[in-house]
């Protein structure tokens, strides 16, 4: 695991002190937030699709229908995969110094198609990464389902993390003003799981469901 | 407020029954989730930047530094602005029928620069949309701050919403299997505001902070 080198594309011009290129920082964000937004170019124009990603070693993966317009356009093409966690609103004494606390990652590169022989293992890693042990408890995938599914991957080679944390930073003279400033923390949270009414009698909620937390803080 | 017509670009090919083109559905998603991801093309390659958006009537807006690489590349150019709310994980009896509950909007079009004369009003609408009445309580914006800030806008003219809700939909024969299925609800939440230690003595938390909820459910 080597840290990423800055490229012309990934050098942060704005608030660059918030940037990070080390894999520990990048991986921690990727591993805690499965949602991502994948950007690709279609007919010269940008498209941003919300989807799920998962990481295995030096790659991130995402999946969908083999007929998906977005996956087809992304194969072998340049994509930008962005993962974002909002941690809070930063309330300052002037408009301009309002901000947000966040952790985000932008990855750039070419997407490749995961070969058929590895597809099932990748999809199981996706499921088990979120819910350890679940893939083995499911009805096995059919050959037709696997054929209908495409898994794309991308090397974690060019990209950056950006992190803001802490309170507002106001202009010196504004601290004398009687204006409430501070942080409104935001986080995501899982509520109690809702069993499907068609679950068979006696089927208990497995540990991987009971202990699952989408809390953006750690997994 | 006219509903959007489907275009070739916005016709949902996958699970099209989840698509919606009426403005009430689209606006409700835009109004409840300030975070968005803006895609633009730079040197022929896609970039996806997390940022905040706000809506006024038939337009969405976003802002940043006048020197921002992303804002400069987006001016007068095609962008895709995507807003996403994750409502839950959908746990099925087979891998393939796992899914997510979500509400999302994709908007396409050309971004324009908000003229200087309207910039301050737009930024106040951004602040007051989240925290009613706050902009008037702040230290006034300086001319230099306004100059350093660019607000981009985009007409809500081409785009779509996509919504999934409800429990898993499994293959008929899989309902006979003793596998736990259901939904794990996810939502975002605000914790108690943290006052800046440098707030002046006697400055109370305003109502617009006390009653603020980033709960993704309604505002
Ligand atoms: C939180 C979240 C997680 C998701 N995870 C996955 C995943 O892991 N795998 C997966 O295959 N899909 C996932 N989706 C759905 C994904 O966003 C796409 O809808 C789906 O992949 C179909 O993509 P496509 O390129 O084939 O779209 P098409 O249906 O070909 O797109 C055509 C047009 O339909 C509209 N459209 C498509 N998707 C959306 C959308 N999400 N919101 C608004 N308009 C839309 C747009 O106008 C688009 O230009 C997820 C969505 C959300 C919100
Ligand atoms: C939840 C959230 C809300 C935000 N809201 C706003 C807003 O309202 N206004 C605003 O101006 N900015 C906002 N930002 C910051 C925004 O994402 C950009 O970092 C900022 O706008 C600078 O953009 P730029 O195009 O000038 O980037 P540059 O600094 O020129 O980008 C150069 C390179 O830096 C890296 N980089 C830049 N931004 C990020 C990032 N967020 N994550 C990882 N790598 C990055 C990328 O490699 C990029 O290619 C928000 C960020 C988050 C996560
Ligand atoms: C009058 C109102 C505002 C003005 C004039 C303004 C101006 C600016 C400017 C100039 C930047 C660029 C900073 C830089 O890149 O160096 C910026 C960034 C930003 N603004 Fe605002 N802003 C305003 C209100 C808000 C509000 C209300 C929020 C949200 C709560 C907000 C959130 C952000 C965020 C998250 C960034 C990115 C900071 C970063 O890159 O780390 N802004 N704003
Ligand atoms: C073996 C495992 C899996 C396979 C084979 C698989 C396959 C597929 C396929 C083929 C589609 C496209 C459906 C369509 O567009 O018609 C799809 C979409 C999707 N998948 Fe998966 N998937 C798997 C696991 C998961 C998991 C674990 C999740 C997350 C919990 C997930 C979330 C989604 C979502 C959200 C969509 C989009 C549905 C929509 O467009 O509304 N998938 N999957």
Automatic annotation (TrEMBL), chains A, B:
UniProt keyword annotation of Oxidoreductase present: yes
GO molecular function, one term: oxidoreductase activity
Record keyword Signal present: no
Comp. bias intervals (Basic and acidic residues): 205-219
Signal peptide limits: none
Enzyme class: oxidoreductase
Xref: Pfam families: Pyridox_ox_2
Alphabetical UniProt keywords: Oxidoreductase
EC numbers for this chain: 1.-.-.-
Residue span of region Disordered: 197-219
Protein name as catalogued: Pyridoxamine 5'-phosphate oxidase family protein
Lineage: Bacteria, Pseudomonadati, Pseudomonadota, Alphaproteobacteria, Rhodobacterales
